[in-house]
Amino acid sequence: MTALDIQKEIANAVASKTIDAILKDLGDLPFAILVDKSYDISVKEQLAIVLRYIDKHGHVIECFLGITLVSSTTAAELKKTINSVLSKHNLNISRLRGQGYDGVSNMQVISLITMFSSVIDMVEDIIEDGLNSEQKAKTNILIQSLKTLDFAFNLHLMKNVLEITKELSQSLQRKDQDILNAMKLVEISKLCLHAMREDGWNSLFEEVSKFCAENNIDVPNMDELY
After folding, report:
1. Is residue 68 very low, low, confident or very high in pLDDT (cuts 50, 70, 90)?
2. Helices 107-129 & 201-214 angle (0-180, nearest 10)
3. SS3 of 56, please?
4. Domain coordinates of the chain in residue numbers?
């Protein structure tokens, strides 16, 4: 064994012990994740995942969970990879309260899918732990309402609108904002929203349909007569 191999083993052992200590400190507290895409020396795509939470003393704690290779950067594959990493460390996705993404154009879709799954998981947990049949009936109705085309469509529509107005919203919150720049951002946002209204239907519905397929939500045939 070379000196480099020994160094790697020591580093891995220290990292493993550190993660174990962090997870023990986390306990049943809610957490968030930070995800970024990077490449290794062979230019293979991989995800770097960081765990973030607030401990019992109010301190923000961040822990690097590791880097994992991905076969593709489709929303479904990335969601599967993230879920696998969380499962490896016994982190229940129902405790996931926030997500930050960078480096992948469809990370917003992953955030939607992951949070949607998290909401469904939490509601299903309520069903399992329900104290009476009335509570279980109400949560079953809630799940059925969430797993509909209407809900998925509104979810994606709001995501797209917020993406367009994000820069304007952030700009207007700055104390040193230039009124001329703010007016320009308002005009740009109006143009983008108009373009989405006039020409964005097909791309929006395609995005919604893919989301529904990945979450077992029925999508009616729009060419049929109803």
Report:
1. confident
2. 40
3. coil
4. 1-104
